């Protein structure tokens, strides 16, 4: 190794040497590559880094395939209701207490850690819809390295629709930081937006970059960056300002993005919400778990799912007992599609009670429905 490397390079190299997982190693190598000396004498070094990156990518892909197979077999809790939210926290934070208070689940609440050794499932009612809550056995520092069945537990989180972090008020910020760190290491990002960058393998030779005007680096540099990683035949479609961090995220196929909130369990009546937490996600302090607090919690948990509940009705009839859940932003046309193919084909207009100015107002197919609307379709 040449001695005239930058401090950034040396630090990245240290990260590489300390890295425990393949993903960490890859991240460190990419950093080394970025800071590698560019003079002629360092050619071998650069080539070696590129070689290592290519080999690691292949290894990660293989590992990923195996993991996928394993997930199909062992992991994943069958989803029920309109969405699955996992309760994630460190030992003794109050997960079981919450699950018990919000659902019909019969779980053990105890003052010693690791009481809950298997995921516990409960169904929470919200406006006649059912939301599945799953208490995940406690995460700890090192879960992402497989400690305390971490790989399996993080797999369950990866599969869920949304995440509620359950934090003990006495230690909220510490617990928050540990959980966030473990989740990030497991490639689970909370409340982050997926970059609007699509990277696809291409059947054609060469790199095609679309959306060059969004690049925050010279196009040539990005091309070199990708080529050095062994990515020669790909197309990159960029639809928003993009720096290397965003490009790396788009390249990392293992990343998942989840909506999240924090529930701070205040056992001694002295909780405040640390700014570091509220900057990242909505945080709710729970003191007594009375009806009012439960209502607030249910509302916030429902919001995480980003769906609207729609009650359909037949002309002249009563609204359906149970609502249907559709992605937020759905239209009358989507309601019809979800209900029945025939409705969708013959749809003319609808009447809506709830979000419209007048009860039973006539609306067109393109009308965007809101939560708890009652909808009558006309074919
Ligand atoms: N005072 C008080 N104690 C709580 C509250 N929530 C949980 N605890 C206590 O904290 C301990 C751990 O609770 P548990 O729900 O089993 O935590 P888990 O390990 O995260 O499932 C138990 O002794 C609970 O009684 C709360 O809201 N107020
Ligand atoms: Mg528990």
Shape, principal axes of CA atoms: globular
Secondary-structure element order, N to C:
HHHEHEEHEHEEEHEHEHEHEEHHEEE
CATH topology of the largest domain: Rossmann fold
Q: Would you identify the regions where 5 or more consecutive residues have pLDDT less than 50?
A: none
The termini sit apart by: 74 Å
Number of domains: 4
CATH H level, superfamily name of the largest domain:
P-loop containing nucleotide triphosphate hydrolases
Report the bound ligands by name, code or SMILES: guanosine-5'-diphosphate, magnesium ion
* Total count of helical runs of at least 4 residues: 12
Known CATH architecture of the largest domain? 3-Layer(aba) Sandwich
Q: Tell me the Rg in angstroms.
A: 25 Å
Class by helix and strand content?
A: alpha/beta
Q: Please indicate the percent range of residues in DSSP E strands (runs of 2 or more).
A: 15-25%
Number of strands: 15
The CATH class designation of the largest domain is: Alpha Beta
Average the pLDDT over all residues and give the rounded result: 91
Q: Give a short account of the largest sheet.
A: 7 strands, mixed
Helical residues, percent = 25-40%
Which helices and strands, and how do they pair?
Layout: H1 7-18, H2 22-35, H3 43-73, E1 84-89, H4 95-102, E2 120-126, E3 129-135, H5 150-159, E4 162-168, H6 172-185, E5 188-190, E6 197-201, E7 207-210, H7 219-228, E8 234-238, H8 244-251, E9 256-265, H9 275-278, E10 282-286, H10 291-304, E11 307-313, E12 324-327, H11 332-339, H12 341-346, E13 349-353, E14 361-363, E15 373-378
Parallel strand pairs: 1-3, 1-4, 4-9, 5-9, 7-8, 9-10, 11-15
Antiparallel strand pairs: 2-3, 6-8, 11-12, 13-14, 13-15
Helix pairs in contact: 1-2, 2-3
């Amino acid at each position: 190794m040449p001695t005239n490397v930058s401090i950034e390079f040396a630090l990245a190299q240290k990260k590489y040497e300390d890295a425990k997982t393949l993903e960490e190693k890859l991240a460190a190598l990419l950093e080394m590559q970025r800071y590698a000396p560019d003079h002629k004498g360092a050619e071998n070094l650069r080539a070696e880094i590129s070689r290592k990156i290519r080999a690691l990518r292949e290894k990660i892909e293989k590992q990923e395939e195996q993991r996928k197979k394993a997930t199909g077999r062992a992991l994943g809790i069958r989803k029920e209701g309109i969405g699955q939210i996992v309760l994630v926290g460190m030992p003794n934070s109050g997960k079981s207490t919450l699950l018990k208070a919000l659902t019909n689940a019969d779980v053990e609440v105890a003052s010693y850690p690791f009481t809950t050794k298997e995921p516990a499932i409960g169904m929470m009612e919200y406006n006649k819809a059912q939301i599945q809550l799953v208490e995940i056995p406690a995460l700890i520092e090192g879960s992402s390295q497989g400690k305390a069945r971490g790989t399996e537990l993080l797999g369950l989180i990866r599969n869920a629709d949304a995440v509620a972090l359950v934090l003990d008020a006495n230690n909220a910020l510490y617990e928050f930081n540990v959980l966030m760190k473990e989740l990030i290491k497991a490639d689970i990002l909370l409340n982050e937006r997926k970059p609007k960058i699509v990277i696809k393998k291409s059947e054609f030779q060469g790199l095609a970059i679309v959306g060059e005007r969004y690049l925050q680096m010279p196009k040539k540099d990005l091309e070199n960056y990708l080529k050095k990683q062994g990515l020669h035949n790909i197309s990159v479609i960029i639809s928003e300002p993009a720096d290397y961090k965003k490009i790396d995220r788009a390249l990392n196929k293992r990343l998942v993005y989840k909506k999240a909130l924090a529930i701070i369990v205040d056992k001694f009546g002295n909780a405040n919400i640390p700014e570091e937490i509220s900057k990242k996600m909505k945080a709710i302090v729970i003191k007594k778990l009375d009806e009012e607090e439960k209502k607030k919690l249910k509302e916030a948990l429902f919001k995480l799912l980003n769906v609207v509940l729609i009650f359909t009705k037949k002309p002249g009839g009563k609204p359906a007992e149970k609502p249907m859940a559709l992605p937020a932003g759905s239209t009358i046309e989507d309601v019809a599609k979800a209900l029945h193919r025939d409705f969708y084909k013959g749809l003319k207009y609808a009447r809506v009670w709830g979000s419209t100015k007048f009860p039973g107002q006539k609306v067109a197919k393109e009308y965007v429905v809101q939560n708890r609307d009652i909808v009558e379709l006309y074919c």
